[in-house]
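tool_call: predict_structure(chain=1)
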Amino acid sequence: MATQAGSEEVIMETEAKPEEAEQLGEEAEKGEEAEKGDTETPSHTDAVDATTQDSSISNGDDGDDEQEKVDLKIIWNKNKYDLKIPVNNTGAQLKERIHSLTGLPPAMQKVMYKGLLPEDKTLREIKITNGAKIMVVGSTINDVLAVNTPKEVVQQEVKAEENKKEPLCRQKQHRKVLDKGKPDDIMASVKGTKERLPTVPLSGMFNKSGGKVRLTFKLEQDQLWIGTKERTEKVPMGSIKNVVTEPIEGHEDYYMMAFQLGPTEASQYWVYWVPTQFVDAIKDTVLGKWQYF
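tool_result:
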């Protein structure tokens, strides 16, 4: 009986073993799947991270290149301007930026950096670095128009203004001299002709006070000598601002003439009975047009 009972226990244990094996097998299989899953997940994440990293590195290079800029100091007409500009911009694009800063049109700019800046090359190619000083030469359209107006234009404007006013010879201050009549010793006039300045003084004329006056043109000294009985004034021709002339009414072969010696009309020195043939030569000589005969 003991043997039989022991046999039964052995049989039962033997029969239980397949069930345990099966259970152990299932647990082992689950463990392998779990381990496999844990192994695959990091691998997938690593791949995604690697892809993202590669992408970010590539995009980062492109962005830095697009945004790379240099700080420049633009110097024009004694003024200084700070300008930040991409290094991939060309010289032509730099001129456009200078235009926006200064108002100086690109076509009127000379941009200097180690010589004349080429328009077709980039700032990178030209090797412009941070803090570089860019010299700009040129004038705006307004500056060009404001350049010293030629004296001929000034004369035309003065003449147009005079035409709007009452003739000078009718004004009271001049009438008191003209009413004295033509001087007896005045130089003869030649109407309809233009002559060079005489080699001798122009004499016999009146000044504003009615006294006799003579004009001597010292070309070698660039001076106009205005002589009266009392004294002789030696006036540099370059200091004479303007010359005003008008024919004397009823005696159109003679002129009244004023030399403006200062900045205002109050400084005008009037001379009466200037022979007509010398009027243009006097004006041209005093205002800068030398006579070559």
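agent: The two ends are 167 Å apart (CA to CA). Proceeding to next step.
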